[in-house]
Amino acid sequence: MDLVQLQRQLVEYRTSLYHEGFLDEQFTQLQELQDENNPDFVVEVVSLFFEDSERLLNELTKALEQQSIDFKRVDAHVHQLKGSSSSIGAQRVQKVCIAFRNYCEEQNVEGCLKCLQQVRHEYSLVKTKLESMFQLEQQILSAGGSIPM
Amino acid sequence: MGEPCLLHFFLSFPEKIPGIILLEMAVNGAVTWLRRAGEMDGYGLSASDTEEVHVLAVDDSHVDRKVIERLLKITSCKVTAVDSGRRALQFLGLDDEKEASNGLDGLKVDLIITDYCMPGMTGYELLKKVKESSVFREIPVVIMSSENVITRIDRCLEEGAEDFIVKPVKLSDVKRIIDCMMTDLREGGERRGINKRKLRDDSEDRSSTAPCSPTTTTVDSPTRRLKMTSFEEHVFSNKN
Question: Is the model's pTM score more than 0.90?
Answer without folding.
Answer: no
